[in-house]
Each structure stands twice: as structure tokens, then as C-alpha cells.
Amino acid sequence: MATDTHTVMRCLLVFLGFVVAASLYPAKAAERVKAAERAVAAERAKAAEREKAEAKKIAELHTQAENGSAAAQNSLGVLYSKGKDASGRGLAKDDVAAAKWFRKAADQGHAEAQNNLGVMYAYGEGVPKDEMEAAKWYRKAAERGSALGQSNLGHAYFTGQGVAKDEIEAYKWWLLAKAQGNENAKNHCGILEPKLSALDREEGQRRAREFKPAKS
């Protein structure tokens, strides 16, 4: 009899366990769903705020660019050149617009924009491909002290793209870019130096020492 009683009690306890579980788990599941919904809503709100801030930033940049700021014009050119990122931030890619804003800034002597416009001409992005025009803008940037412009002009001289091939002049510009920490120029110097005669290396180094950046 005692055994039957214990069995009955165990069955009752198991049954009560199921009853309790049945009453608790739906509540926990519902709470988890609500928590997930709250998290999604919060993330959407953050995303909307980021989009709003990004749109405001771009609008302000447009205003500054229209008002003649060379820095803003170059930044706007970069945004158009890069296009939207993976999260959808930025501006739709538009190489013609990018070249337009780079030119406006470049015409004001903005060295980074001058180099950027040179790149557009080198690859025919937003403008007709023109290696001579690319080299012209690289030179303007390089003479103003742009490490990228100097590295790109060095490459133009090394390959003879847009200018007469001249390894000493290429070495000069790569030395100048290398001194500013440009890694491409550093690598190119390492490749070119062993190929130059001692006299040619000395001449390239002398030209680099005598270089004076153009005044703004």
C-alpha cells in the first residue's frame, strides 16, 4: 500500500511539474519575444538617427562646397568617388560629380584634390582617360608637398606615362614621398635603387634635397 502511495505521489509531482512548466514557459517565451522586439526597435531607432546625422553632415558639406571651401569640395569628391558603403552610408557613386568637385578644389590649390583629379584622369573615371593630364595634376600635388602626388608622379616618370621616362626623376619623387612615410614609394625605392648607378643615385638624392614645396 505504501508503495502504491509513493507511486501515486511521484506521478502527482511529475504531473504538477508539467502543469507548472506549461504555465511558466509560455510566459518566458512571450517575454523573450518582447525583449527581442524591443531590441530590434532600439536598433532601428539608432539606425534612423545615424542616417539622419549622415544626411545632415552631407547637406552641410554640400553647402560648404557650394560656398567655395576647397576642403569640403575635395571631401564631397571623395564621397562621390567611393559610393555608398556596405551599410548604405554615403552618396551614390558618381564619377562625373567626383571629378567636378575635385577640379573645383584642385583649381584652388588643394593638393589632395589635385592628386585625386590626377587619378581620375589616369583611369578615365568621370573624365576622358588622359595620362598627360594625370601627370600634370600629379605634379601640381607633388610640388605642393603631397606624398601621394609625389609617389604617383614618381610612378609616371618610371613608366613614362604622361611624361618622358626618367628613372632619376622617378627616384627623386619617390625619395620625397618615402620621407613622408609613403609605403608605395618606399617599396619602389627599394626596387629602383639597386638598378641605378652610384652617380644616378647621387643625382636623384641631390634633386630631392633641393626640392622646395610650392607656396600656397
Concise overview:
By secondary structure, the protein is mainly alpha-helical. It has helices at residues 2-66, 70-82, 95-106, 111-123, 131-143, 147-159, 167-179, 183-192, 198-210.
Give a quick set of tags describing it.
single chain, 76% helix, 9 helices, elongated, mainly alpha, 216 residues
Major beta sheet summary: none
Mean pLDDT, to the nearest integer, reads: 88
Supply the number of helical segments: 9
What radius of gyration results from the CA coordinates? 32 Å
Overall geometry comes to elongated
Enumerate the spans where pLDDT stays under 50 for 5 or more consecutive residues. Answer: none
Q: Total number of β-strand segments?
A: 0
What's the number of structural domains? 2
Class based on secondary structure composition and strand pairing: mainly alpha
- Between the first and last Cα atoms, what is the distance in angstroms? 106 Å
Question: What does the model show?
Answer:
- Helix 1 (2-66) crosses helix 2 (70-82), helix 4 runs antiparallel to helix 5 (131-143) and helix 6 packs antiparallel against helix 7 (167-179).
- The chain folds into two domains: 1-105, no CATH class; 130-216, no CATH class.
- The chain is an all-alpha fold.
- The chain has helices spanning 2-66, 70-82, 95-106, 111-123, 131-143, 147-159, 167-179, 183-192, 198-210.
- The longest helix is centred in the first third of the chain and has 65 residues, at 2-66.
- It has nine helices and no strands.
